[in-house]
Design brief:
- The protein has 4 helices and 6 strands.
- It has 192 residues and is α+β, with helices and mostly antiparallel strands.
- Strand 4 and strand 5 form a beta hairpin.
Length: 192
């Protein structure tokens, strides 16, 4: 009988030691995975040895958050600047093509009928079609009220009727839009 009780005591002690080891291991693993400030409850006061580490941890957390936000802003700004650069390069090219179409229009006005005029009209149409594909459209201004967002009034002329007062009575140079942005303002004469 005595041997049986001794074996039981030994088994109980072994299981007790195993439980204590398991408990101490789980306590250590949770302490290692949680930040220092989270290990302290609201009522606990950090020990003087931990206060500098906690302050340092908070400072580094703040620095990390700010650096991450700065990098995100930098990335967004860089993408926006690249897009603006591409757009601006395209605008310069389109403006130069617009000036060529103006030259074609002036030439067509003074040209007589014939094969040369037909050829010039075909080339002019190709230029205007190419501009339309890129989203460039002429601004319609004739007989419309003056809108300084689209029109540049270069002269005033006496109106022949009361309806023409404040309206565009002549277009000196056609204006163009690039999608929803004014590429070139329309130069107009306004009735007064």
């Amino acid at each position: 009988m005595m041997k049986n009780t001794d074996n039981q005591n030994v088994k109980e002690q072994k299981t007790k030691i195993k439980k204590e080891k398991a408990n101490s291991q789980t306590d250590n693993s949770t302490e290692e995975n949680t930040p220092l400030s989270d290990n302290l409850s609201d009522t606990e006061v950090p020990t003087p040895e931990l206060e500098p580490e906690i302050e340092s941890l908070e400072i580094w957390k703040d620095k990390y958050a700010r650096l991450s936000a700065d990098f995100d802003n930098f990335r967004k700004r860089t993408v926006k600047e690249k897009m603006n650069l591409i757009e601006m390069g395209g605008e310069r090219v389109l403006k130069s093509i617009i000036s060529i179409t103006d030259d074609f229009e002036r030439a067509l006005k003074i040209m007589g009928d014939g094969a040369e005029k037909d050829g010039m009209e075909l080339i002019h149409k190709k230029f205007t079609d190419a501009l339309a594909v890129e989203g460039v459209t002429p601004i319609d201004a004739l007989n419309k009220p003056l809108d300084t967002d689209f029109h540049d009034a270069v002269a005033k002329f006496p109106a022949q009727s009361p309806e023409q007062v404040g309206c565009v009575i002549d277009v000196l140079q056609t204006g163009y839009m690039l999608k929803d942005k004014v590429l070139r303002f329309t130069k107009v004469v306004v009735g007064e």
